[in-house]
């Protein structure tokens, strides 16, 4: 009985630890994204919140078109999104800003622009992830190979790097 109790307690500890690390990864924004056809935004700067808000406005227009009783009851009468960006989630991958900082900035921008939390939800419609946007491993974790659209936001570090390399093809400001 003592050996069985020890084995069960070790198994419970292993399962508890793995669940805890999984939940920690979700909270930190380092978990894998399982989306397809999404919009991927790489990098975080002052224009990122504006870009996400514009996508939320596109999404709202698409959802409003499909909130009629006929579109609800008759799926073949539903309007198609004007662009793939309007109908699919947005994934933001940042190496500089934490997930909490990105979330608070986007929540404030949504409130300021009256974007309904019912139609555009952080965590479901806008997924935030932390990691290096230039790392191949991190790009696979945000399903960059399955994204329908990719926006690359130039950060201050990118601008400094471009200024240091006069042969780069990035425009200098």
Topology:
Elements: H1 2-28, E1 39-42, H2 46-65, H3 69-73, H4 84-87, E2 90-94, H5 99-112, E3 126-130, H6 136-141, E4 149-152, H7 156-164
Parallel strand pairs: 1-2, 1-4, 2-3
Helix pairs in contact: 2-5
Outline the structure in words.
By secondary structure, this protein is an alpha/beta fold. 49% of the residues lie in helices and 10% in strands. The protein contains seven helices and four strands. A four-stranded parallel β-sheet has the order 3-2-1-4, with helices on one face.
Summarize this structure briefly:
By secondary structure, the chain is of the alpha/beta class. It has helices spanning 2-28, 46-65, 69-73, 84-87, 99-112, 136-141, 156-164; strands at 39-42, 90-94, 126-130, 149-152. It is extended and about 65 Å long.
Strand order of the largest sheet: 3-2-1-4
Largest beta-sheet details: 4 strands, parallel
Series of H and E elements: HEHHHEHEHEH
Which runs of at least 5 residues are low in confidence (pLDDT < 50)? Answer: none
What is the typical, i.e. mean, pLDDT? 84
Binned strand content: 5-15%
* Shape by Cα distribution: extended
State the share of residues found in helices, binned by percent.
40-55%
User: In angstroms, what separates the terminal alpha carbons?
Assistant: 73 Å
Helix- and strand-based class?
A: alpha/beta
Rg value: 21 Å
Number of strands: 4
Total helical elements: 7
Descriptors for this entry?
173 residues, alpha/beta, 7 helices, extended
């Amino acid at each position: 009985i003592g050996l069985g109790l020890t084995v069960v307690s070790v198994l419970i500890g292993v399962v508890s630890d793995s669940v805890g690390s999984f939940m920690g990864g979700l909270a930190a924004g380092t978990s894998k994204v399982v989306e397809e056809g999404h919009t991927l935004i790489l990098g975080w700067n002052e224009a990122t919140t504006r870009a996400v808000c514009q996508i939320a406005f596109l999404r709202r227009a698409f959802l409003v078109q499909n909130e009629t009783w006929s579109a609800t009851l008759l799926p073949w009468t539903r309007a198609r999104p004007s662009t793939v960006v309007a109908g699919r989630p947005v994934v933001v991958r940042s190496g500089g800003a934490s997930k909490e900082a990105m979330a608070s900035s986007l929540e404030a921008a949504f409130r300021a622009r009256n974007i309904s939390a019912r139609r555009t939800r952080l965590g479901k419609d806008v997924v935030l992830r932390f990691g290096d946007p230039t790392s191949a491993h991190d790009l696979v974790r945000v399903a960059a190979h399955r994204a329908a659209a990719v926006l690359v936001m130039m950060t201050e570090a990118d601008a400094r790097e471009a200024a240091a390399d006069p042969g780069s093809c990035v425009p200098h400001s």
